[in-house]
Amino acid sequence: MRERESQEGEPFPGGNPRLSHPRRRRTLSAMAIQPRKVYRVLVYTVGAVAAVGAVYILFRYRTEKVPAGYTCLSPEVEPGSTVLVDRLFDLSGELAVGQMVRFRLARGGESVPRYGRVAAVPGTRMELRDGGFLLDGVDRGFPTPRGVTLPGEVSEGEVLLAYNAAITEDGGGTLETALVREDDVECRVLMALWRR
């Protein structure tokens, strides 16, 4: 009887009866990692992440052609130029001095789309001294904004933008500045891809 029990429980000399049992072998085989399934899961995961990333990029970034009649900041952006814009620019943090944006400016009861650069951010002090318009005590060559009481400060929720009020035939323009609400900034212009 002992020999028979030994043969049934230990088919291989020196083996472990628990691991050598046929049922145990099938269970361990079912639990083993299957490379094909892991590969499929990996491929599906990478594909899903890539699809979500592509949708996000297409929704956030796009190219647009500057329509005729838009007042722009020449020579970087002119009517007919194609630019790359970021519609979710607020996700990248606050606007910074020097960034180019597309915004809407109320003039004569009409909201006009324009392109310009950020000249000053909230907290910047504005003043007139010796006939010059100073930002934090520095004359940066910007004209005085209309309808602004000086000395003063750029309020929270506003930015001072510099833009060309008109484009001339030689590509120049009349530089102006205006205090604009951040809510009226529609997108950030990343770059001009090519001109007309």
Quick rundown:
With 196 residues, the chain is α+β, with helices and mostly antiparallel strands. It has helices at 2-9, 17-20, 22-31, 35-60; strands at 61-65, 82-86, 100-107, 110-120, 125-129, 132-135, 138-139, 152-153, 158-167, 173-181, 185-194.
Describe this protein's structure.
The chain is 24% helix and 36% strand. With 196 residues, it is α+β, with helices and mostly antiparallel strands. The longest helix has 26 residues, at 35-60. It has two domains: 2-59, no CATH class; 62-194, Umud Fragment, subunit A (Ribbon), CATH 2.10.109. It has a seven-stranded antiparallel sheet. A four-stranded antiparallel sheet has the order 7-6-5-8, with no helix packed on it. It has four helices and eleven strands; from the N terminus they run ααααβββββββββββ.
